[in-house]
């Protein structure tokens, strides 16, 4: 499969910036790691796509990270996506097998799977307290919820479109997203143009499925507006776990609790060791008593 592609650009008059991602390989990698149902793939895929763009938007330092956390009361459970400053993402969904009937229009019921609740955006620069902003979900369809987050929490008018298309074999046929943001002192005449353009972005995954590039889709989002492309990068589904990090996390657990878990292992006839599975990528790490205590 080709690489994911993330385009960043800006209108020539400095009124608006545009981000377009073809996240098909990212979403497909998530499906392969989490063995998600088509509905879970759509929920997690949309959130990963958004997190990748938002991480690359706000990141300035290598240590910057951005987390999107969807906490709805629907059957999908909690869904998390974490991006680094370049848009490399990882994520998980609490109920990877979630399934609901298709909506009347034949689409996967992402809003129904997510339900009512909150969307939280956590920005962490790696030093000091992370910044968290939360909004109540509008529909659970994710794109609208993120647009509301920008409007309410950051006062930045934002067009957001996200889409994931799943094939009969449960793999990702196409996935992608578009963000257009108005900058301070934007030309107000741009607003109706961007709104009109956004109608053509509703079927964003179909645009990529038909073979369009990120530049083709950016041309649709910015139709009638002169703009320049800054760069085009290739973010990936990438986990940051390692044996060292996992052990460091275990070292923060109370020694008496570790002993209790080791005793339980022994009582069940297993060696005195602990296995930790990374929830983002499924990698397994095993530690014996000598390492832990
Ligand atoms: Zn991992």
How would you describe this protein?
A hairpin with a 6-residue loop joins strand 6 and strand 7 (131-136). The mean pLDDT is 95. The termini are far apart. This protein has 293 residues and is of the alpha+beta class. Strands 8-9-2-1-10 form a 5-stranded antiparallel beta sheet, with helices on both faces. It contains 10 helices and 12 strands. Helix 1 (24-34) packs across helix 2. The radius of gyration is 21 Å and the shape is globular. Bound molecules: zinc ion. Residues 239, 241, 278, 280-281, 283 line the site of zinc ion (ZN).
Give me the side-by-side strand order of the main sheet.
Answer: 8-9-2-1-10
In percent, how much strand structure appears in the residues?
25-35%
- Ligand names: zinc ion
Mean pLDDT: 95
Class inferred from helices and paired strands: alpha+beta
The string of secondary-structure elements, in order, is: EEHHEEEHEEHEEHHHEHHEEH
Task: Give the C-level CATH assignment of the largest domain.
Answer: Alpha Beta
First-to-last CA distance: 44 Å
């Amino acid at each position: 499969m080709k690489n994911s592609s993330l385009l960043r650009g800006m209108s020539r008059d400095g009124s608006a910036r545009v981000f377009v991602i073809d996240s098909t390989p990212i979403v497909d990698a998530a499906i392969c790691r989490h063995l998600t149902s088509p509905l879970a793939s759509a929920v997690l895929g949309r959130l990963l796509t958004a997190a990748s763009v938002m991480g690359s938007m706000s990141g300035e330092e290598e240590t910057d990270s951005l987390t999107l956390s969807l906490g709805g009361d629907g059957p999908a459970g909690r869904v998390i996506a974490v991006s680094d400053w370049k848009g490399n993402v990882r994520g998980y969904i609490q109920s990877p097998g979630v399934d609901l009937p298709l909506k009347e229009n034949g689409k996967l019921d992402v809003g129904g799977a997510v339900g009512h609740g909150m969307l939280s955006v956590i920005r962490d620069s790696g030093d000091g307290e992370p910044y968290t902003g939360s909004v109540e979900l509008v529909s659970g369809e994710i794109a609208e919820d993120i647009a509301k987050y920008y409007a309410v929490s950051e006062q930045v008018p934002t067009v957001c479109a996200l889409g994931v298309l799943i094939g009969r074999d449960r793999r990702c046929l196409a996935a992608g997203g578009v963000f257009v943001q108005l900058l301070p002192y934007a030309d107000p005449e741009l607003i109706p143009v961007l709104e009109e353009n956004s109608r053509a972005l509703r079927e964003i995954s179909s645009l990529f499925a038909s073979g369009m590039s990120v530049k083709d889709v950016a041309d649709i989002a910015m139709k009638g507006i002169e703009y320049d492309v800054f760069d085009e990068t290739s973010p990936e589904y990438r986990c940051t776990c390692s044996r060292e990090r996992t052990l460091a996390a275990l070292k923060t657990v109370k020694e008496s609790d570790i002993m209790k878990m080791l005793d339980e292992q022994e009582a069940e006839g297993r060696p005195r060791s602990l296995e930790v599975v990374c929830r983002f990528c499924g990698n397994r790490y095993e530690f014996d008593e000598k390492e832990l205590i």
